[in-house]
Amino acid sequence: MNRILACLARNQLLISLTVLALALLFPLVFPSQYSIRMATLCGMYIVLALSLNLITGYTGQVSLGHAAFFGIGAYTAAILATRFGLNFLFTFIAAAIVAGLAAFLLGLPTLKLKGHYLAMVTLGFCEIVRLVEMNWMGLTRGPLGILNIPPPSLWGFTIDAPIEYYYFIVALVVLTIKLVQNIVDSRVGKGLIAISEDEIAAEAMGINILRYKVMVFVISAALAGFAGAFYAQYMSYIDPTSFGTDQSISIFIMIIFGGLASIPGTIIGVIVLTLLPEVLRGLMDFRLIIYGLILIAMMLVKPEGLLGNINFTRIKKAADGKKAGELK
To answer: What is the DSSP letter of 284?
Structure first.
């Protein structure tokens, strides 16, 4: 097993380029609209799960209301596109800003607390946002939802074909992975990991815990807002039922299954748990029960998830050091 991990660590760039090439070829090999649609939804959930893993996996803060920021981004984009006719460049940026601002206002008082207060607060926040979306008829049209959301367009080019949406979400996934990886590899990322392991020790080292937590919480929510903007303009219709607590729990289970603090694990977790309900379509009403059973089994067999606690950068350095020692 160690040799396999070392091999994967040494060839991360090659593996990443191969996966990207396969992703680009996917709609050409599987051209059916159903396949492309499922792959597009997988891409959207990858963005959502990576954003949640940034706060939960790398910082150790449990958030159970990620769908609230997803919904805020979706409604922001939908309202700006339908009522003001703004193009997707403005709707996406606005969705990220509004979701990030909501996270800042929520996180500033909440993240001062320790323990699982954030989990409880975000769970309640998600329900509050859903109720606002359900009852503010003048803004969100309540249970009627927002209809006829225009597709993304810029400078006369409109994204309206399934394959175009697919390549659009692939670009967003690549940008999200790059952003998360850069954060993790930076000084900020090291600070986040230190906070997740021991807050007292991190504070003693001079790390401003509240600033780091709030910053990553805002970034996480902004990325969820991006995903929400894509969802709104991809589906062309949204209503509050898509942004409830069950959606938050589904995203949370994806990162637990794939592995906390693991980008490859998150991607695997999303793909497996997004496609599983389609494979078991007859059991769609029992989706959360199935997810729960999978989560229980994972906690018993491999609590850290499929690729949790596997640091490929560290493994590569160790393997290179061992190889250099053997050459000597």
So the answer is: G
Do the domain assignments include residue 77?
yes
Residue 88's pLDDT is: 87
Tell me what the pLDDT averaged over the chain comes to.
Answer: 87
Contact 102, 214 (CB under 8 A): no
Distance between CA atoms of residues 246 and 324, nearest Å: 50
pTM above 0.85, yes or no: yes
DSSP state of 146: B
Q: Has residue 37 been placed in a domain?
A: no
With 0-12 / 13-18 / 19 or more C-beta atoms within 10 angstroms meaning exposed / middle / buried, residue 187 is: exposed
Residues with Cβ within 8 Å of 302's Cβ and at least 6 positions away in sequence, in order, are 308
The helix (run of H) or strand (run of E) holding residue 175 is helix 162-185
* Residue partners of 76: CB distance under 8 A and separation at least 6: 91, 94, 95, 98, 99, 225, 228, 229
Which of the four pLDDT bands, split at 50, 70 and 90, describes residue 287? low
Residue 238, classed as helix, strand or coil, is strand
Q: Is residue 221 part of a domain?
A: yes
DSSP strands (E only) in the chain:
153-154, 157-158
Range of the domain at 229: 46-245
The per-residue pLDDT for range 163-177, each reduced to its tens digit, is: 999 999 999 999 999
pLDDT, tens digit, 9 for 90 and up, residues 46-83: 999 999 999 998 888 889 999 999 999 999 999 999 99
Long-range contacts, stretch 168-173, CB < 8 angstroms, 24+ apart? 168/230, 169/40, 169/43, 169/44, 169/47, 169/230, 169/234, 170/23, 170/24, 170/43, 172/43, 172/47, 172/226, 172/227, 172/230, 173/43, 173/46, 173/47
The count of domains in the chain is: 1
